[in-house]
Design brief:
By secondary structure, the chain is mainly α. It is built from 15 helices and 8 strands. Helix 3 packs antiparallel against helix 4 and helix 5 packs across helix 6. The structure holds heme C.
């Protein structure tokens, strides 16, 4: 568990900020490790806010597993390692990136340039800077080419790494260093493009993980505008568009089914399905509002005498308390599910994992399950 490593949640989790509940995160959301606190067994990962800044949140180490990087991830890692002067990692990451057929040509063109430059830099740092000047100019040119090819993030990491190496070479050659080539790209716009690309990936992934697909699409679009060749952005866009398309289909189905006699139940299923794909779909959200009372009837019906009778002997007061807890505490992070979307066994299992998240005692969980069982029985009558 080291900084820069890519990890994925192996279960749904609540991200903690300074030890307090901060945001829910679904299973399989990916993060880049910031640091690992071995004593507390906590992994620090970034959570990105709308303004592009990130806060360091924690997850328990047992909730994450390592993820192999894809070719693009390796290429990015090579440049970030260069930027951060971890030169040993560069050739290894470039070789790994070259395994991806789509990146093979780029990675194998870059490999000798980096190797030549790093060798010359090593010699220059030892006090003999002659060959370094030319190779530096060549690398500055490489940054220009990468930016032109739509890879602002690679170009920026390269530029920043070159600045650092140049400063070190100058320090190692007092008076004797040759004139060193400066940046050939306009740095501020380059930085803005790289930041927009990274935000597109980070905020886009974060929104997509919560199925906020319209929000995700906005971030990804802005990212692609700034950095059109990022494969991770292109892949994310394809996924977002597919889910948006599915949600649109669900909307159409729900909208037509609800017009038929007895169609409300089916319409609600389609609605529920669609909102799971895209939680911020405006037409689905509006339809859900219109169908609010039908929705309540299928997720959390009021406690009626029939419902009390369907319970295994619970009082109306207990069932009422359970319903209040259920509708208040289980909606903190997501909508309620349709009662018949899972069996009572399924509800018990969900309660076992969710009860803790809602900070419910065993007694409270038991009462909610009694309410759900009675509600399910009245539903199926
Ligand atoms: C602190 C946030 C939070 C609270 C509170 C919460 N949940 Fe969840 N719940 C989640 C997240 C996040 C997921 C998504 C899980 C995933 O994608 O794997 C989820 C998923 C679910 C699911 C579907 C997945 C599954 O586990 O089978 C059910 C059902 C569910 N919650 C029920 C409940 C119930 C019942 C309560 C109240 C006791 C509750 N939740 C309270 C965060 C929460």
């Amino acid at each position: 568990m080291s900084p820069g490593e890519l990890v994925r949640l192996n279960r749904s989790e609540t991200l903690l900020f300074k030890g307090e509940n901060y945001k829910p995160a679904p299973k399989s959301q990916e993060f880049t490790v910031l640091k690992y606190d071995a004593a507390q067994k906590l992994v620090y990962v970034p959570y990105y806010k709308e303004d592009g800044t990130a806060v360091a949140v924690t997850v328990p180490v047992e909730a994450v597993e390592g993820v192999a990087r894809d070719g693009w991830g390796e290429l990015l890692r090579a440049f970030e390692a260069f930027r951060d002067q971890r030169f040993d990692e560069v050739p290894r990451a470039l070789a790994a990136a070259g395994q991806d057929p789509a990146l093979k040509a780029l990675a194998s063109a870059l490999q000798p340039r980096f190797t030549g430059f790093l060798t010359a830099a090593g010699v220059a740092l030892g006090g003999r800077a002659q060959a370094f000047g030319n190779l530096l100019a060549g690398m500055r040119e490489t940054a220009v080419q990468l930016d032109k090819a739509g890879h602002a993030s690679l170009a920026l990491a390269l530029e920043e790494g070159l600045d650092k190496v140049s400063a070190r070479v100058q320090a190692a050659n007092p008076g004797g260093a040759p004139a060193l080539a400066g940046s050939k790209v306009d740095r501020e716009p380059l930085r803005e493009r790289a930041v927009a690309g990274a935000l597109g990936v980070n905020l886009g992934r974060q929104a997509a993980a919560l199925h906020r697909m319209l929000e995700a699409k906005r971030w990804v679009e802005a990212g692609l505008k700034a950095e059109p060749s990022r494969p991770d952005l292109k892949a994310l866009m394809a996924r977002v568009e597919k889910d948006l398309g599915d949600a649109e289909d669900d909307f159409k189905a729900a909208n037509s089914m609800r017009k038929h006699a007895g169609g409300a139940v089916h319409a609600l299923s389609a609605l529920d399905h669609g909102l799971k794909k895209c939680a911020d779909h405006p037409k689905l959200k509006e339809l859900k509002k219109e169908m609010e009372s039908a929705f309540e009837e299928r997720t959390s019906p009021p406690v009626t005498p029939a419902l009390v009778a369907a319970s295994g002997g619970s009082s109306a007061a207990v069932l009422e308390e359970a319903r209040k807890l259920y509708t208040a505490r289980c909606t903190e992070c997501h909508d309620l599910e349709l009662l018949d979307s899972r069996s009572m066994d399924g509800w018990s299992r969900a309660m076992a994992s969710m009860g803790g998240r809602a900070h419910l005692s065993d007694g409270q969980r038991g009462k909610i399950l009694e309410y759900l069982a009675a509600a399910q029985r009245t539903l199926n009558k």
